[in-house]
Each structure stands twice: as structure tokens, then as C-alpha cells.
Amino acid sequence: MRLDKLLSDMDMASRSELKKNIRKGLVTVNGEIVKDPSTALNGDEKIVYCGEELTYSEFEYFMLNKPAGVLSASMDKKQKTVIDLIDCRHRKDLFPVGRLDKDTVGLLLITNDGQLAHELLAPNKHVDKSYFVRVDADLDENDTAAFEKGIELEDFTTLPAKLEIKADSKNEAIVTIHEGKFHEIKRMFHACGKEVVYLKRLTMGSLKLDESLKEGEYRKLTEEELADIKKSVV
Ligand code: URA
């Protein structure tokens, strides 16, 4: 890969600024000043750009505990997005895998691995997603049965889903769905005559929200988490 492309992928600066700085001698590769922006690299060299050592990664994977009030998008002209919360040096092509509503909190995988994202979101893979949910009225076995059967919404009938009502709090539950349609959980409860007042995603496939992450915090996936989630969609 070209040196200027590699630096651009890691979002160090605009391509033209990068070229200028490379030509000025502000970049070293394995300790040597390199002035040609088209220099071919493997990505495993020690690169220092304007005094900052950088680690190149072809793919990056972050687990974010999404807070409310932030959009699940890569970019937005007016509103803050989940990518704006990743404040460490990162690849410029990161995106969230799927969408949580603006007011939904919890687990969100952020990566630039399009293939993995595609597999996790593919409708035929039925990757399980579980949520903690609080609604505005008590739930009972009729709701559990309705979820188990699949709920008829205006435009489609949901796949069977699992509703586990909390023993000590009847308006709270863990819901597991096997698809990910727009506003699916809110619409399922609405169809049962209840409104969701709080929604938090806990799991996606084998990936579990790290409860030590406060809302708005993120961390890289561990190698084990990454291997497990990749395994779960092959
Ligand atoms: N279902 C919803 O209704 N909202 C979400 O954010 C996720 C699942």
C-alpha cells in the first residue's frame, strides 16, 4: 500500500496535506525519512508522522456502550454520531454495525469490516440480539405467548421472539429477537398495547456488552470476542 494512502486510511490528515508533509520530510519509516508519498509499505513498518507514531490496522473493531441522544450513523451534518464518540486515533472508514434508535442505549459494534457487518446483518443469518426493556405497564403471560408466536405488524409478521419478564418487576423484561427490523422491539410492544420507555441492547450474537463500560465509553474487542463473533456467522 502507498504511504500516503496508509496515512489517509488512519485519518492522519487530508491526502493533499499528507503529501505535502511527506515531501517536507516529516514522515519516517523504520527510522528513515521517506519523501516519496507513493512509497510501497506492508503496514507493519514503524511509521512516525509529524512526531506521532502510528499503528496501522486493516480492520478495527470497537464495542461501544451507546448513550441516548446520539445517532447510529457514520456522519451527520447536525447531530452527534456514534463515530464521533470514538475519540482515539482510528481508521476513517469506521461505521456502526446496524442501527440503534437515537434513544436506545447499549451494545454497538463499530468497525470497518464490511464483510463481517454484512454477515451479522444478513436476514438469513438470524443473529440473536437481546435487550433489556422497560415498558409503561405490567407484562404477563399473554405478552410472552404473543412474542413466542411472532407478532403481526402492519407490514410484516415478526419471527418468534423470547420475552422473559423480570420476576421482581413486571414492567421489565429481557427480549431476544432473531432479526433486526426498523423499530422492531418498540413496534412489538406497541402491538401488545404497551410503550417502551427504556431500551438497552445487551448482546449481539456471541458479543456481550461489557458492563464496565459506562454509557459513551468504548473499547477494542478482545481477540477472543472477535474470533467468537466471526465464528458465529460462518
Ligand atoms: N428495536 C427498536 O425498536 N429500537 C432499537 O433501537 C432496536 C431494536
Question: How do the strands and helices of this protein lay out in sequence?
Answer:
Layout: H1 3-9, H2 15-23, E1 27-29, E2 32-33, E3 47-49, E4 52-54, E5 61-66, E6 95-96, E7 105-111, H3 114-121, E8 129-135, H4 141-149, E9 162-166, E10 169-177, H5 184-191, E11 196-204, E12 207-208, E13 218-220, H6 223-232
Helix pairs in contact: 1-2
The chain binds uracil.
Structure in words:
By secondary structure, the protein is an alpha+beta fold. Helices cover 22% and strands 26% of the residues. The chain has helices at residues 3-9, 15-23, 114-121, 141-149, 184-191, 223-232; strands spanning 27-29, 32-33, 47-49, 52-54, 61-66, 95-96, 105-111, 129-135, 162-166, 169-177, 196-204, 207-208, 218-220. It is elongated and about 70 Å long. The two termini are 29 Å apart. The structure holds uracil. Uracil binds at residues 100-101, 104, 183-186, 199.
What is the H/E string?
HHEEEEEEEHEHEEHEEEH
What is the radius of gyration?
A: 22 Å
Counted beta strands: 13
Largest sheet: 9 strands, mixed
Instruction: Estimate the strand proportion.
Output: 25-35%
The helix content, as a percent range, equals 10-25%
Low-confidence parts, pLDDT < 50 over ≥5 residues? Answer: none
Multimeric status of the protein:
single chain
Distance between the termini: 29 Å
Q: How many separate helices?
A: 6
Average pLDDT, to the nearest integer?
96
Structural class: alpha+beta
Hetero groups in this structure are: uracil
